[in-house]
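Teaching assistant's notes for section 4

Start the section by putting this record on the projector. Ask students to predict, before seeing the second block, whether Glycosyl transferase will look compact or extended. Collect guesses on the board.
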Amino acid sequence: MEDIKLSALMIVFNEEKNIEGALKSLEFADEIIVLDSFSTDKTIEIIRKKFPQVKIFQNKFEDFTKQRNLCLTYANHDWILFLDADERIPRALRDEIKKEIKNPDAKDAYFFKRKFFFMKKPVNFSGTRNDKNIRLFKKEVGHYDDTKRVHEGLSNIQSSGTLHNYLLHFSFDTYEAYYRKILHYANLKAKDLHEKHVQYGFFKQIGKSAFNFFKMYILKLGILDGKKGFILSYFSALTSFKTFEYLKEQYS
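Reveal the predicted structure now:
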């Protein structure tokens, strides 16, 4: 049987709190590649000291799509596994990945279901029950859609499947960290909307923000997550509100 190998990839910036756990969960891969956006904390120091086998590259961050596509060019193997620094691959999922890439009838790409944690506590509703992202795919189909700076996705997948075991997503451990991410993502999303000639509108801003809160808190049962559900619903609304604020600035 052909020797099928796996390249594990990460794009990072200032992930000293997460990098060790993430890289440990990737040690089963045949190579690990990290593309760093010139971190100013101890991210690179930790990698070099504790994970000498990891290949490190650096590139100034412009947007997530460009970073991911650049990172792909460094991979040497047939299969790609992308992991975010706040995600972990448990043993059951690791074994499923290793089995699936050797399947002669394997799909082009695989979605991973994610178990979401906020402030180190599990979130059971708030839209997370159906949360899944493509994390594993064949390198030959690997190219992220250049029209999206954030919430990026692969552009030429012909067939896909979903793995059974869950990826663990340890989101933010402070409100401040979540708020910083909201501002970052909203700014990138606003640039996408501006390039698509989407116009700013005050009532559109208020309406979409209110609907996002209602959707997560009521329709996606965030109310059943108690305080966590309310906070996550609020942040969902805030993301939409800030996106339109940045969009307004694009036209000023």
